Amino acid sequence: MSAWSLFCSRTSKAPWSSRFLMMPDKSAAIIDKWKVKLEGSGIPVVIGGHDSASPRGVGYSKNQAIAQSSGSYLCFLDSDDVMMPQRVRLQLEAAAQHPTSIIGCQVRREPPDSTERYTRWINQLAPDQLLTQVFTSNGPTVIMPTWFCSRAWFSHVGPFDEGGQGVPEDLLFFHNHLRKGGGVIRVDQSLLLYRYHPNAATRSVLETTIWTHRVRFLEERVLPHWAAFTIWNAGRQGRRLYRSLTAEARRKVVAFCDVDEKKIRKGFYCYEDSQERPKPRVPILHFRAARPPFVICVKLVSVRCSHSRGHASTVRLVQAPVVGSQTSDMQPDIHALGLGRLRGAAGYGERWSPLSGGRPGCRRRPPWRPHKMGCTSVK
What we know:
Pfam families: Glycos_transf_2. InterPro entries: Glyco_trans_2-like, Nucleotide-diphossugar_trans. This is UDP-GlcNAc:betaGal beta-1,3-N-acetylglucosaminyltransferase-like protein 1 isoform X4. The protein is of the alpha/beta class. The chain has eleven helices and 13 strands. Helix 7 (about 170-180) runs parallel beside helix 8 (about 205-220). It is elongated.
């Protein structure tokens, strides 16, 4: 293991790694049983622990595993997943060419019918979308169990947040990685069997926690480049976004826009909880009267589409693909803020979006055509 280090981290409530183990689930006893066999095959085994009465969290486990390893490259793997034999070779080749990037890969889900939309999103993002969709998703655009990177780059970006249960340590690291100019590369082969189970630690992260981190990242990376912007959706999600912004960012919101005549007839949204006097009153416009850039907050809507293979299936609109403006250094064509479920749940990103205006075979199209205003479509 002189060139790279592989370590696993458990995704249940008692995290452990192949180099760092906790005792309640008898993991240490199992590893002790295999220690002789593994070391006889040339695989070093390092067993560690801590004196805390409660689990220290996934971030702590990963940091300890990295500290106790010695390779020049780090290959991450959750303990309940299975990687393909060619994974290390292919990702190592990619990492050597992209030393400041996180290297991911496509996955195969187990059970196969679990989180179908999320799995499609993981596997089908175009190379440029690995960056442009960072605001659309509830987590990194390449999922943590597929990460591969150089130790030098990890040390430059890291470590993982050790706040414990309820902290999205992978998302926080991913945001720091992007802040430092890191790239995102995906090997387009299925190199991981990605198991789904309801007790995964990712489910302990509240949606409100992830929402807050994503809004702050949007404010940091996108909104400073805009003098003003419009929130597309005067409903619950659009108002939630407005209320979540800092006072400085709220002052840049020149209008809400919508297709709902009732909301438009109301004429404005008043932020009743504001401490400002007079309280902010933001106009509500018909979308045709609104001006970009937009932050679009769109709820998932089911439509029936007939695909070219001749069968019908239910497709959902992508949740909150956003914006058209060529001002951000990180987002040259489009900015997006996704709104929705717990990270690691259903998934985000479909092949059809409200910005694309429909696709061949759809039996129903939305009544608006925002792509005519120059917005870029997002899958």
